[in-house]
Write a structure and sequence with these properties.
Layout: H1 4-21, H2 25-37, H3 48-73, H4 79-101
Helix pairs in contact: 1-2, 2-3
């Protein structure tokens, strides 16, 4: 079974590589989570990709909140642009989640 320490290590490695290479942490975390979740009998194989993506997205929310706080302290957020982008982001997120619910793990 996967330990808390190994998950912390995964997060640290993903964060370091994301920072060094400029890639999203999900690029690293999702494939590893898929591998991990295949070993969980509680997660049906048909749902492994969905669970890995959802888990990665949940971590992105936490990371984003931390990043917003840090950048806001430096005055580096252009809030009018954020508010103009928000409706499209919401529509895209809803459309993506609805679409994903109709796709198999293999399709994702």
């Amino acid at each position: 079974m996967i330990t808390l320490l190994s998950l912390l290590a995964l997060g640290a490695v993903a964060g370091i590589l994301a920072g060094l290479l400029g890639v999203g942490g999900g690029t690293i975390i999702v494939p590893v989570l898929i591998w991990i979740f295949h070993g969980y009998p509680e997660i049906p194989t048909a749902n492994v990709m969905h669970v890995a993506l959802a888990t990665s997205l949940a971590t992105i929310v936490i990371t984003s909140l931390s990043s917003i706080t840090a950048h806001q302290k430096q005055g580096a957020i252009d809030w009018p642009v954020v508010w103009r982008l928000t409706p499209g982001i919401i529509v895209g997120a809803l459309a993506g989640s609805v679409s994903a619910s109709f796709l198999s793990s293999d399709s994702l």
